[in-house]
What does this fold into?
Amino acid sequence: MNRRNWLSKATLGSTGVVILPHLGIAMPKTNLGDTYLRLASNENPYGCSEQVKKSFLTSVTAINRYAFPSIPQLKIALAKRFQLTAENILLGAGSSGILEAVVHFMLQREGDVTTATPTFDILPAMLEKFGRKSHYIRLKQDHTLDLDAMLAKTQEHPGLVYIVNPNNPIGTVVASQELRQFITEATKYSYVLIDEAYLEFCDNPESMIDMVINPRVMVIKTFSKVYGLAGLRIGYGFAHKEWVIELEKFMIFAGLPISSPSFSVATVALDDENFVDFVVQKNTESKAIVVETLSKLEIDYIPSQTSFILFNISKYPTDFMMDMKNKGILIGTRDYLGKKWCRVSMGTVEEIKEFTKVLTELWKA
Ligand SMILES: Cc1ncc(COP(=O)(O)O)c(C=O)c1O
It folds into this structure.
């Protein structure tokens, strides 16, 4: 399915399917009140830590107040943690909030976006709504980003390069040295935005944050994934102070759309390294269970460095997503390389055991 098709399909209400326009991921529609195993949206199945819950409940006493003082406080905490200054920090209502500011920034200037396909493409999709051009570069045969082709494209059409590393919905990562070289070259022509929403789940996570000394580099991260705070909407980013000043022109008080409870819990979450380690370890356990089942069933999959796995369901004879839904499990599907794939998000170990049991039953039926 090409992009235009799946975007228009997103508006079809009666198919029993919702297409997420930013991913081309199809997910089953659900009725309010239905309880399903939610393995379609890359959410953290372990919730958040006890300390975070406690600070959220305490923050309720101050919800009559605006969060003005919390904005610099969180910036200082993040700057300290990542060895930068508060002037390098961006805050948003989710990292999507920062992506939205980047869209506004791009709309004020000439230039195209270069990105990969498939990827998390909410940013180029939004720019396209304003008539702007995006260039989608196919992945290499090993399903990783084709950085050479992306560099060539942005030389030809400068503007912005948007890189999701590790890549959603594929799950692969590019080697950090290669990415560093790419950033150095590409910023001669364009701005470069690296989205590290899933970096903590990698075997050897290496952030590009130290590269924001370059005025054309930005790195964004989120509290929605490993920290388990998707519903609170809080994301953060790092850029050279010159770019931060430009971007914050499009942000109300540089973070006021973020609620005061979100600010309170973010600082606590950031310090809770045990919880992050726990989530990453459990994610690895869940992935191992899925991989073992896929191997037993001889189903092709793409080895993943994230909290989800993409596997090939082209051989499945009926509608895999609907069959899963009928068994109480929500997963996403998408087309890639002319084949049909399932993207399953890692649930808890128990949830994933349930998923693999149902997968095995359906596959062998
Ligand atoms: C790669 C990537 N970036 C950014 C986001 C946005 O996340 P949030 O706005 O919750 O921070 C997502 C959400 O799934 C994502 O997958």
Notes: The chain has twelve helices and 15 strands. Residues 42, 94-96, 120, 164, 168, 195, 197, 222, 224, 230, 235 surround pyridoxal-5'-phosphate (CB under 6 Å).
